Amino acid sequence: MVDDYQLPAIRRAAAFCLTNLGWALEEVATADARHQWAVLRTAAAPDTRPYDHFVDF
After folding, report:
1. What pTM does this model have?
2. Total structural domains in the chain?
């Protein structure tokens, strides 16, 4: 669960996990002026890529 999903830095960190770690975005709450949350699901299989693997996001 990710809180404060409306903040650009939090959304960017979540985007990194979605793009580079194979996570999935399950649900996003309706945003209001001060708060939003999202549910991310981690990958089913362990990550076996080398430590320096990176995909720009």
Report:
1. 0.77
2. 1
